[in-house]
């Protein structure tokens, strides 16, 4: 049953008071994966570690939901949040590219054609949102949402994500527990809940893992540390690649 806004506020307080994770699971996971590494392909192993960290974020969310007895009302085909500005790192974009490269050839070709179409079809919207400075403009989300620029990886025919397994952290941590109507009625509704506090654990774990690999002379497939500090709108890493 969907929750009310007041119920969400009380649950948030309960989470903050009693159920905030300390990040130790991420530290332990990095140690465990490093112990498992036996010198195989460092680039591929790093990609697998990246996916496992994403799944660990999901597990933390499910555990918190279990403790406070809530269930998201988000459903497949509901894509209102897929028009939010998604900001990610160049490193994560490269790992998304690796995921695409794993797909069957026909799917890869379709996605590359879709990216090309996206850049051309939304050229004017892209030009306008590119002028928004997400580091300085405190209202950039509102302006961005008014453009109704869909995520570059949203399949608008099915309202599903083309890279769901490796979708970025903002997509995984933004969940609604109230009526789905709140997302339909407002670009930036108050009701949805964000587990963005998990991002700090996730990004620190990535740094720890990569630093160890780089120190040992392994090729992790990214330019470290630059790629993990270079942040931008997700679509720019892909539209720019096609230019």
UniProtKB/TrEMBL annotation:
<protein>
    <submittedName>
        <fullName>Zinc/iron-chelating domain-containing protein</fullName>
    </submittedName>
</protein>
<dbReference type="Pfam" id="PF03692">
    <property type="entry name" value="CxxCxxCC"/>
</dbReference>
<dbReference type="InterPro" id="IPR005358">
    <property type="entry name" value="Puta_zinc/iron-chelating_dom"/>
</dbReference>
């Amino acid at each position: 049953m969907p929750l009310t806004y007041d119920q969400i506020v009380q649950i948030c307080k309960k989470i903050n008071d009693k159920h905030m994770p300390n990040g130790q699971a991420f530290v332990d996971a990095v140690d465990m994966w490093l112990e498992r590494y036996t010198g195989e392909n460092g680039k591929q192993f790093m990609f697998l570690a990246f996916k496992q960290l994403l799944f660990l974020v999901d597990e933390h969310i499910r555990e918190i939901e279990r403790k406070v007895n809530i269930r998201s009302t988000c459903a497949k085909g509901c894509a209102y949040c897929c028009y939010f500005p998604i900001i990610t790192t160049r490193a994560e974009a490269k790992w998304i590219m690796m995921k695409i490269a794993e797909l069957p050839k026909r799917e890869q070709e379709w996605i590359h054609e879709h990216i090309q179409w996206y850049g051309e079809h939304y050229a004017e919207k892209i030009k306008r949102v590119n002028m928004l400075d997400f580091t300085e403009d405190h209202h950039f989300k509102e302006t961005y949402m008014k453009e109704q620029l869909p995520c570059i990886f949203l399949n608008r025919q099915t309202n599903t994500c083309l890279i769901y397994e490796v979708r970025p952290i903002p997509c995984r941590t933004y969940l609604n527990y109230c009526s789905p109507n709140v997302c339909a009625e407002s670009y930036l509704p108050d009701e949805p809940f964000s587990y963005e506090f998990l991002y700090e654990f996730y990004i620190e774990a990535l740094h720890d893992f990569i630093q160890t690999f780089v120190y040992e002379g392994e090729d992790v497939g990214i330019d470290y540390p630059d790629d993990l500090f270079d942040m931008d709108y997700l679509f720019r890493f892909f539209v720019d690649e096609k230019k």
